[in-house]
Amino acid sequence: MTTQAIILLITFLAVLLALSYPLGVLIAKIADDKAAVPGFAWLAWLEKGLYKVAGVKADDGMGWKSYAVALVVFNTLGAFAVYLVQRLQAWLPLNPQALANVSSDSSFNTAVSFVSNTNWQGYVGEATMSYLTQMLVLAGQNFFSAATGIAVVFALIRGFSRHSSKSIGNFWTDMTRSTLYLLLPLSIIFATFLIGQGVIQNFSAYKDVQLIDPVTYSQPKVGADGQPLKDDKGAPVMETLTTTTQTIAMGPVASQEAIKMLGTNGGGFFNANSAHPYENPNALVNFFQMIAIFLIPAALCFAFGRMVGDKRQGWAVLAAMTVLFVIMTVTVMVSEQQAHPLLASLNVDQASSVLQAGGNMEGKETRFGISASALFAAITTAASCGAVNAMHDSLMPVGGLVPMVLMQFGEVVFGGVGSGLYGMLIFAILAVFIAGLMIGRTPEYLGKKIQSFEMKMTSITILVTPVLVLAGTAIAVMSEAGRAGMLNPGAHGFSEILYAFSSAANNNGSAFAGLSANTPFYNVMLAIAMWFGRFAMIVPILAIAGSLAAKKRLEVNAGTMPTHGPMFIALLVGTVVLISVLNYVPALALGPVVEHLQLIAPR
Q1: Are 42 and 151 in a shared domain?
Q2: Does the chain have fewer CB atoms within 10 Å around its N or its C terminus?
Q3: Confidence band (pLDDT; 50, 70, 90) for 235?
Q4: Residue 227: how many CB atoms within 10 A of its CB?
Q5: Is 237 in contact with 231 (CB distance < 8 Å)?
Q6: Looking at the structure, do residues 41 and 158 belong to the same domain, yes or no?
Q7: pTM for this one?
Q8: Residue 351 has pLDDT above 50, yes or no
Q9: Whether residues 157 and 264 fall in one domain
Q10: Are residues 160 and 62 in the same domain?
Q11: pLDDT for the residue 72
Q12: Which domain holds residue 215?
């Protein structure tokens, strides 16, 4: 690693810690649904007013089944709303470019994507979505999906902290308080900062500007059915086009950018996402976008420690996440700072070439360089965000392996807002169960016995995403419709499909981008992976929360396994890595591992 990369990583972690600790204190107060939030007493009237309008009794607790039904119904209705607005946007206001309605399969995919906090984008934002669609339903779901994740982790933590209780909280209260006291204030502050740094926020029409010189470019030719055309050898048929003008998109970007990052959503206003200068104009914005992605997931660890009455528990979970994150980030940074073997074999001068200066610059913004791009790639895939400031498809094979593996860990290395912590707590339950088997004691975690019901639900939670990823990938590579979207042959093409399903099922949303995924086949298949990857995990987790809340909390004794020290942290890290290795190594061996070996093979 270069000195610059080391300093950047250390600075990032230091700033993250300094900002997330006090935020964790605030989140713990927000989770206390019986008390006012310090500093926000002036908003209490709005909270009560929302409950009154909605007919919600905020003090009524819910069992896990009622909580789960409310959550699923609310998100299902949200998906219908996102779908309908896309299908009707041509007749709705705030459509300055007179964009047409979005196709049914793309609308379906996008609706599921934004509701599940995945934000997978098979479309070009500035050429497909009107301002109203972007602001009303896409940005709206950025708030609601993030609040849903926070609500679930609140419910799970209450399962550990409550004694013989039938209630795990009230879903409507958790959603309202998370949005009103956490997501909205942080988004307003961050959006104001972004506007001050040059991120645009307007309702202007798109600008057509004359180019100084005509631009000639090539792109894959598409047939009448929307599928890329291929020649007799299976290679894409390219067409050459020339343009003399450029259309510069406008729009209310900063407001969506703020919640995109803070809510670990990741859906960009523009197709280039955080590589676009209107979304990410300079190095300072880039740094704080990375901080924003991890801010709430890290703060939730501190809130967890306070809510269960032992701050050391929060530190232990945060330490396990940080260990995994640092190891994976160092790997991708080192990989990208190596010269590309194929360019080196062509005797490209590494000192003078832009592509080779300091490493692999292909697909990266010169504004950010290799270190900031590699760090961003690790952060956005560790936290199920999916925003990108570089082309992941252009990463070195090992560099591309890291984001894929971070997603396949289950998005628990900080992870999404709420989902990262509740995913890691599920691994903690599995870790104490394994430890209990080894020492011959009934496993306990935070004073609650872990018994057969919890382990059944834990097994479902851990296995659902590998099944979706591996089954979806297998179907795609075996079907003609799946293979038709592959623009790269061999191991890299397989990696693109594996990455797409890993991203969808783990609700990340980033892509290798060499896959033509905006087709009926991929829109439907990836939507299925996104929906069940989200809600087939949440329902068993709420069942665990309900089961734990009903149990008595046992006192610590001499035989209790400590769950806050180095040994438990190592056990937790080992459990996360081992489960992922067992699930995904055969598939990884067919993709990025083979590609790496082919790249370094003697020529």
Answers
A1: yes
A2: C
A3: confident
A4: 16
A5: yes
A6: yes
A7: 0.93
A8: no
A9: yes
A10: yes
A11: 98
A12: 207-248
